[in-house]
Specification:
seven-stranded mixed β-sheet; 31 strands; about 5% helix
Length: about 500
């Protein structure tokens, strides 16, 4: 096995009115996360009001789970309130619509007090909940109309001003305002005592993705493979010194929130070949994969954090050329079925001259990898032998790729290899239910060395087909795709011909 090790980091969260131990996050590819925290409750017998003011601004209220993880205490939550619009100037202006307030304006060295009536605040409500539950655009526009979207309107001395005449001064609103998104519970307890409860909830505004940098020498296909994790926090709050897990896979998420509060136990990954503990630990979980970052860190609100999580050397990346010569304008043929294609004589007769550059990497331990690779962008660099600098040679996106599977990545079109595809014959007998079609494909290599090109042909007119003649050996890839692997010498060309018959 080549030199491979997995690295990583950890992120966290805090609590305000409740004490807590080590919090944790599980971040999903789909732009949401599960937050778990320990909340210290000091309950009395009967009703208890508990306030948690460290929630995110995009919390899904229906997903909240407050429980005793030991199962000894049966919490009875009579009521839960979630307030996600913290105190701000805009919110206070909206609360004083139709009322007169004082504005403070600095004129030179003096302060001038101006009395004005708030006709419209211009305040736009917090819309994360509307977006999350599928609220329509029209409904949100109605809120803007009645809640004061746009600039404020202030009446001063009978005249309307479409801006604030100064800094507004508000009277006290008492204790019913909040500075952070807040959860409030009314909990019924049959006894008094202290309890370390677990709080779990789903929040939007958190995402992660993987990026891969693949670096090769100028004349070699043995590459260094480096993977990065990028975490983005747009939840409206910072997380400090907590554990982070990353869930890779296509987890179904619908408009109606679902609780993802399950935790898991993680084992040491067998892929680290270093003596120290692997900073990122991977394991299969349900039908997905979890990557646990084992070093605490801080992920601030509106912060993007990157962590290197995999580094492998000596990985073989095979470069191949593919010519798929049939140009199909999708804007014309979108939604067509095989019967429509069979009846259109001109389908597939336009030629695509481009030859694709493909990189193939086997995700196996023998090739220095052999771990589940999360979906992400893959960038290729090649080192210039003259000055040692890295030059960018293409990028693409890979999907979630299990171990032992082949990565095949398109990185662009070859400059010195071109293709040409022409139909040389077409015959049809609708009464006898058959079509014959013949093609010639020419691939020209203007490079200074020989190349191998995979010429791919799609037999798209019907399910039942046979090749009546062919100039070269071919491989049947699937039910309607064949490939001719052809060697083309330097500064030469190769022509492939075949005839196919369809019957129905």
């Amino acid at each position: 096995m080549k030199n491979l090790y997995i690295k990583g980091i950890l992120v966290g969260l805090g609590v305000v009115t409740c004490a807590f131990a080590e919090p944790s996050l599980t971040i999903y590819n789909g732009g949401f996360a599960v937050v778990r925290d320990q909340v210290e409750l000091d309950l009395k017998r009967g009703d208890n009001r508990v306030t948690y003011s460290n929630a995110t601004a995009h919390l899904e209220p229906q997903s909240v789970v407050l429980r005793d993880p030991s199962g000894d205490w049966d919490l009875s939550i009579l009521e839960q309130n979630y307030r996600a619009d913290p105190l701000s100037q805009g919110l206070l202006l909206s609360l004083f619509e139709g009322k007169q307030i004082t504005f403070e304006k600095i004129v030179g060295d003096n302060i001038e007090l101006i009395e004005g009536t708030v006709i419209r605040s211009g305040y736009q409500p917090h819309f994360s909940a509307y977006n999350r539950y599928g609220q329509s655009y029209q409904a949100r526009q109605q809120i803007l109309v009645h809640g004061g979207g746009g600039s404020p309107i202030i009446e001063v001395d009978g005249q309307l001003h479409f801006r604030l005449p100064g800094t507004p001064i508000f009277p006290s609103l008492g204790d019913d305002t909040i500075l952070k998104p807040t959860l409030e519970w009314l909990i019924d307890s049959d006894r008094r005592g202290k309890l370390d409860a677990e709080l779990s909830y789903v929040t939007a505004g958190m995402s992660w993705l993987a990026d891969y940098n693949i670096i090769a020498p100028e004349k070699s296909d043995t590459v260094d493979f480096v993977g990065w994790i990028t975490m983005d926090n747009q939840t409206g709050r910072s997380f400090e010194n907590a554990r982070i897990k990353l869930m890779a896979g296509d987890v179904k998420k619908v408009a109606d929130p679902t609780v993802y509060a399950a935790d898991a136990i993680y084992e040491l990954s067998p892929f680290s070949v270093r003596s120290e503990a692997a900073p990122v630990v991977e394991k299969a979980f349900d039908d997905f994969h979890l990557y646990t970052l084992n070093r605490n860190a801080t992920l601030r609100d509106r912060e993007t954090k990157q962590v290197e999580f995999i580094r492998a050397s000596g990985v073989k990346a095979k470069r191949i050329y593919v010519y798929d010569g049939a140009y199909i304008p999708m804007n014309r043929y979108r939604g067509w079925n095989r019967e429509s294609i069979r009846q259109d004589e001109s389908f597939g007769t336009q030629s695509n001259p481009k030859v694709w550059i493909m990189q193939e990497i086997e995700n196996t331990e023998e090739n220095g990898l052999g771990i589940p690779l999360p979906k992400g962008k893959t960038r290729f660099y090649r080192q210039d032998a003259e000055d040692g600098q890295l030059e960018f040679t293409g990028e693409n996106v890979i999907d979630h790729t299990p171990k032992k599977e082949l990565l095949r990545i398109n990185t662009g079109n070859a400059f010195d290899i071109i293709g040409d595809r022409n139909r040389t014959d077409y015959r049809v007998d609708h009464r006898a239910h058959w079509i014959e079609e013949a093609f010639e494909i020419t691939v020209t290599n203007r490079k200074e060395e020989a190349v191998t090109v995979r010429v791919t042909e799609h037999l798209y007119r019907w399910d039942n087909w046979e090749l009546l003649s062919r100039s070269d050996e071919y491989e049947k890839v699937d039910s309607d795709t064949i490939v001719f692997n052809v060697e083309i010498p330097a500064d030469a060309e190769k022509t492939i011909a075949y005839r196919v018959k369809y019957t129905w």
